[in-house]
Amino acid sequence: MIECNSIKGGKIKISKEKLSFRPSVYAVIVKDDKILMTTVRSNGKHFFPGGGIDLGEKVEAALKREVMEETGIEVEIEKFLDFREQFFYWDAADEAYHMFNFYYLCKPITTDLLSDDKVDDEEAMMPRWIEIESLKNIDDNIEAVAEILKLL
User: Which of 9, 106, 146, 152 is deepest in the core (most CB within 10 A)?
Assistant: First the structure.
């Protein structure tokens, strides 16, 4: 059995056979003293725009596609920030993943965000520019967000 982090919080044990491999890419987009975050529908927490890399899709293309779908903006990738391995359980679909998550610092080319009803994603919603300092003090933040913010 593999211990996975549930999107709703806590841990859940999943058989190894239930896991799917899922490489993912996330954008850390900074503008002035703000960072672009989305809200995770399943738990209400903030997270970086991004998601799964499709088979045959290059990392850079996946990052730009995911950011566009979830926020409506175009980005330029500045540099690689971090890699994190994660065992993740998505409760809503009863799916478990062995994830390789790649985080990139990005510069916004455009800055006008999608309206909430135009976001094209099952889990990401409400893209917002948020003061970086305010995120560092949120107790319910996802661990990866706190760790990535330390790299800025």
Answer: 106
